[in-house]
User: Which sequence fits this backbone?
């Protein structure tokens, strides 16, 4: 059995002995075991990080940027192998795994500009003979705890910005698909990073709790499900750490009566079923406005969904692959049953789907459920599978209310040809990321990413300038170089610019 170990300075050494099975979701077989670390292992990683971080922070930012440039080159050179490794543990199709890597690399590209981004502010003559300047300094040691669904992109969002800014970083990736994060850390070292700047520790709650309680870890970035995100935020901030914790989602796509329905169907198929629905920016709820729009949309959706090809992750023609584990397959199928029991109309049923020749794989057929209402549990909670729910709204206000009042507020999209309605929607909807005729509005790397309500705890977003703010603090310097003559001011009165 292939063993996946921690990537820390000095090697993994003796660990707690606990292990976690890593599946190949396409075959339904266990393909590897990952070591689960404990507080003692984390301590070794923290000591190594502490030893290297001051010199890394003191390295001039152009040299740190050169490591990012070389890392980008190496990831690109290894992209196919990384994508295949990613797909074999996650289950997404290889081409989509390329996208997972690419969207992370775009943050690395942004981090290549770190000398520019880190420049501080300066005000000459803020007072008589007084200058004020501020500089961004790294926090020290940062940690990232990441979900299974983007094992390349989300770690790169975090360590790209954190390391470029001069921090050391300890990554605790998902134990379900841990190989790619380790490979990325190896490539980062190969790119010229000093040993210890980026380390990977594996584990489950035991390791996460050790990170949350470690006094030398200054900041934690988390992405995963909302209950865990809330827990991470509460415990991390109680330990006086800076924490950003992003959670689950239930993104709605509002379809106005004037929308181009063929375009909507095409967009929805990819956004609802791509990566088997295991994306936090997937679009699992569609809200047509008016019965007429709903009926027409449903009529067009049915053949489009029936035409989707489910396949193993290496199938070049497959639209999507299996879900990540047998437990997750059972959970998604249970949600379809719950929706049925609650009165939802199962228009296309993906339960019990079996792929010929791969009967043990964790496949779920695409599922369409109509006449879903806000009172249903299956609407209120995240399903995270290839399931699209139709909630029929009577008018614009009714449709606007649904995502605005939902517990999650990650992404939302509106499909329309009416610019006024789109503008009104974007300004009023209570959700963090909005798409206008764009089904998956993940902002590009030089903007920033973050949902609202139970999709995001804390107040600073991922990547872009927001990411830089998260991974740095500002030092403000007020300087005066007196000429020795004295300026006669009264030192007992607070200086004002009056
Ligand atoms: P998860 O919450 O199960 O796991 C995320 C991380 O938390 C993993 O590293 C895991 O080891 C750790 N963890 C799990 N249980 C824990 C516990 N009890 N205590 C401490 N740590 C624990 O999430 P997942 O299933 O890996 O990922 C899917 C979820 O992530 C979905 O809810 C999805 O919407 C969400 N997600 C959100 C975003 C976003 O940006 N908002 C992005 C991607 C995924």
Assistant:
């Amino acid at each position: 059995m292939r063993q996946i170990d921690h990537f820390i300075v000095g090697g993994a050494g003796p660990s707690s002995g606990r292990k976690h099975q890593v599946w190949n979701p396409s075959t339904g077989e266990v393909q590897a075991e990952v070591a689960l670390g404990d507080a003692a292992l984390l301590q070794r990683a923290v000591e190594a990080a502490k030893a290297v971080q001051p010199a890394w922070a003191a390295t001039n930012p152009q040299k740190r940027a050169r490591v990012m440039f070389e890392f980008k080159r190496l990831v690109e050179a290894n992209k196919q192998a990384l994508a295949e490794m990613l797909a074999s543990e996650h289950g997404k199709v290889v081409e989509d795994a390329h996208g997972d890597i690419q969207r992370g690399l775009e943050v690395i590209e942004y981090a290549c500009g770190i000398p520019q981004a880190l420049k501080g502010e300066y005000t000459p003559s803020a007072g008589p003979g007084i200058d004020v300047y501020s500089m961004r300094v790294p926090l020290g040691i940062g940690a990232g705890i990441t979900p299974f669904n983007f094992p390349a992109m989300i770690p790169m969002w975090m360590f790209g910005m954190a390391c470029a800014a001069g921090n050391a970083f300890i990554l605790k990736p998902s134990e379900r698909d841990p190989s790619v994060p380790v490979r990325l850390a190896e490539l980062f070292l190969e790119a010229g990073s000093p040993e210890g700047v980026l380390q990977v520790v594996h584990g489950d709650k035991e390791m996460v709790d050790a990170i949350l309680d470690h006094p030398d870890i200054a900041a934690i970035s988390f992405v995963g499900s909302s209950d865990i995100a809330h827990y991470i935020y509460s415990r991390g901030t109680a330990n006086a750490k800076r924490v950003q914790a992003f959670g689950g989602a239930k993104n709605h796509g509002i379809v106005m009566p004037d929308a181009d329905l063929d375009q909507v169907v095409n967009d929805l198929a990819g956004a609802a079923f791509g990566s088997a629905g295991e994306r936090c920016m997937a679009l699992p709820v569609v809200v047509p406005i008016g019965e007429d729009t709903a009926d027409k949309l449903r009529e067009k959706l049915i053949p489009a969904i029936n035409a989707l090809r489910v396949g193993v992750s290496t199938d070049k023609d497959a639209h999507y692959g299996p879900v990540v584990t047998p437990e997750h397959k059972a959970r998604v199928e249970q949600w379809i049953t719950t929706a049925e029991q609650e009165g939802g109309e199962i228009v296309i049923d993906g339960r019990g789907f079996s792929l010929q020749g791969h009967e043990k794989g964790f496949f779920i057929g695409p599922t369409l459920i109509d006449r879903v209402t806000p009172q249903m549990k299956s609407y209120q909670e995240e399903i995270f599978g290839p399931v699209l729910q139709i909630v029929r709204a009577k008018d614009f206000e009714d449709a606007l209310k649904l995502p605005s009042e939902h517990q999650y507020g990650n992404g939302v999209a509106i499909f329309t040809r009416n610019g006024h309605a789109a503008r009104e929607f974007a300004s009023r909807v209570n959700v963090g990321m909005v798409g206008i005729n764009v089904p998956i509005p993940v902002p590009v790397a030089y903007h920033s990413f973050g949902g609202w309500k139970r999709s995001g705890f804390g107040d600073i977003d991922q990547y872009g300038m927001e990411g830089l703010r998260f991974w740095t603090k500002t030092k403000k310097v007020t300087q005066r170089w007196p000429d020795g003559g004295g300026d006669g001011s009264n030192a007992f009165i607070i200086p004002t610019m009056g």
In short: Residues 145-150, 172, 174-175, 204-205, 208, 223-225, 228, 246-249, 280, 382, 384, 410, 451, 455 surround nicotinamide-adenine-dinucleotide (CB under 6 Å). The radius of gyration is 25 Å.
